Fold this sequence. Notes:
Layout: H1 5-8, H2 10-37, H3 49-62, H4 67-84, H5 87-103, H6 107-121, H7 129-144, H8 148-159, H9 165-182, H10 185-193, H11 204-220, H12 224-241, H13 245-265, H14 269-285, H15 289-306, H16 309-325, H17 329-345, H18 349-469, H19 473-493, E1 499-500, H20 501-518, E2 523-529, E3 539-540, H21 546-557, E4 564-573, E5 576-583, H22 588-594, H23 597-620, E6 626-631, E7 638-645
Helix pairs in contact: 2-18, 3-4, 3-5, 4-5, 4-18, 5-6, 5-7, 6-7, 7-8, 7-9, 8-9, 9-10, 9-11, 10-11, 11-12, 11-13, 12-13, 13-14, 14-15, 15-16, 15-17, 16-17, 17-18, 18-19, 18-23, 19-20, 20-21
Amino acid sequence: MRVDPLRSSIPEMKKLHLCIALWILTTGFCVGQKKKADSYSEYKSRSSQSSVAELLRNAEMAKSSNAAQALDYVQEALGMSLAQGDVLNEARCYLLLGEINEQITEWTLALENYNKAYQRLAVRFAASPEYSKTLRGMGSTYLKVGNYEQALSYFQQALQLKTSALEKAELQVSVSEVYYQQGNYQQALAATEAIAVNQKTGDEILLGKIQNQKAKIYARLKEVDKANDFYQSSQLNMRASGAAAPARDEALKQTKEEISGALREQKRFDEDISLRNQAIDYNLESNNLNEVSKDKIELSKSLVAKGETTQAIQQLQEAATLADSIQNPKDEASAYLTLATLYEKNNRPNEALKAYQKYSRAITRQAEQTEASQQERAEILRKQKEIESLSNEVIAGQRAEQTLLQQQQLTIYGLLVLIAIILVTSYFIYKSAQASRRANQLLALKSLRGQMNPHFIFNALNSVNQFISQNDERAANKYLSEFSRLMRLVLENSQEDFISLQKEEEIISLYVKLEHYRFRDKFEYSITIDETLNKEAIQLPPMLIQPYIENAVWHGLRYKEEKGKLELAFHQHNNLLQVIITDNGIGRQKSAQLKTANQKKNSSTGLKNIEERLQILNTVYKTQYTVAIEDLQADSGTRVVISIPVTT
């Protein structure tokens, strides 16, 4: 009794299904454990992407006006980001911390936080806007602390990124500033000249910054007229741009001082006075009263240098009054000290004493203000430490939970390894069963091909015997010669699974010729092959067509009273080679009536043989061989259509 290897592998398949089910359950358990590890402390269930983004937006809005409040937002956002393992938002938190630290001139902390953001963004988020912003922040901070090489390095890294033309221009201005701070004025000037400004876009802010940068450089080069021209143009462009006053005024302030210093050095006091008066008008318009107070103090120095003491005193008094009104004791103290010194030089001791007294009171208020500022600064630094402590606690908590999770997973991984072994073993058992089944099917196919040959040989020898019995020796010799040639071709190809259409045509043509030689008075035949077919390339199973031709001749045409016709046609339809065998014999119904019991048995065995061959071919080679047999008009013949998938 033959055992189907595929059926014998059914228990293994059940094991396979069981293993897959266990694997799904185990994987689900692992995912559940991982989710538990990612949620802890107060961030457990309320952590969400949207809440982190909202906190960061609030921090961004508060950082300029209320650094302490901004730090509170950042602290909560950082805790959530760490709990979620959200590296991008974690980096955004550190970036904001760096900006806040830079704003309060805590350069060391700024660099630490910028560096943390840089480490988290450089690998996975190098194309993000945050990465570019981090590079600019690091460059700016290194510039503030005088580390020009590092500042230049980070600005140049930012320039290599894909950024807008405006951002690149801003970075080139920063590069120029590095060279300016180094004292390399020609290179600083060259960096500004390389910036392309699109005048059509009306980018007055950028144009104003470039002009302002050139003004500073020319002031250091002592080309004061050029410096002043660029400074005036810069003011006009920045005003027209509607740029935010603090950023605009800070950019212009340093340039103004550079030009003023150069003018005083060249004793061009009238021009310096004009420059200061213009700055006072500009800052009054911007409501920048702190800068107005400073300008009046500096204006007084040029007035004194010109000998206009009365006007100088008036400017100092106005500066002191203004500084007092805006609670700026530092500038108030500076104004009264300068005023007291001026009174002394002009032999006005009483006024000098009063000015010194006011100076003393202003110094006291300045000390109080400084102390309050230091306390506020200390509070901000305390919050910074809390944030750092939070970061360490969250990381430590994650590590602890990861350790616990790892211990839990060791057992799970062991089970997974066992399941993997079972899966692999089951897979190989299944493949082995498939291979065995295929081998059995190929063996059965070979056996069926072998069964075709004896039937064919028997019929051919009968034909030879008939010629001999008729004493037609010449015909017998000729027939036997053609038959031996046919047998050689059949035997050569019977061991092959597939042969070319060319070889099959040769065998079929020779076979039909022999049958016609014997029954020449019974039928004529024609073989037609579509010229578009590549007979050498197309492959088909051997001895698949011959049995149907044999049936047509032996059971249809040889019983016909008048001469019949056998037509054999090959053509391609879509991806199928169609072999159409048509005869106008007596038909299947009448042929069945004439058959003996032995003929019926042989015919049944032959058709069953072909059906089994086709079934095995379709199973083994995953193809679709089909045979359609139809009766033509009553008692007028049969058509067989064999559809063979085109295989090359």
